[in-house]
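[Meeting: bench + compute handoff]

Bench side (C.D.) handed over the final construct sequence. Compute side (W.E.) agreed to return the predicted structure before the next meeting so the bench team could plan truncations. Sequence as handed over:
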Amino acid sequence: MSNNTTIHDTEVVFLGRSTAMRALRTWARGRGLVRRDTPGPHVLCAVVDDEIFEGRCDPELTTMLNLCRTLDVDCLTPDVARMVLPALTGLITESESASGKRAL
């Protein structure tokens, strides 16, 4: 992740509509992360579907991915985001912590 990431960064850009992406958006919203449509100064990261990384998408989504990269926003696949977002945000619920499982 970028060296300038702070604990106050609570905004995430989600690019894509896969089942995994919908699950991540729901999880993030339930833990107070804010969904952003465009990257900005307090964006923690962008979660990007594989199809968009591979360029199999609308030009608008490719443009948004390129903007994230230009602004040095870390771009993660849903699989990677599932592993790192809880650690980056510290947003693991008590029940998830007790069970050792994360609800993603």
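W.E. noted at the follow-up: The chain has one domain: 11-92. C.D. will use this when planning the next construct.
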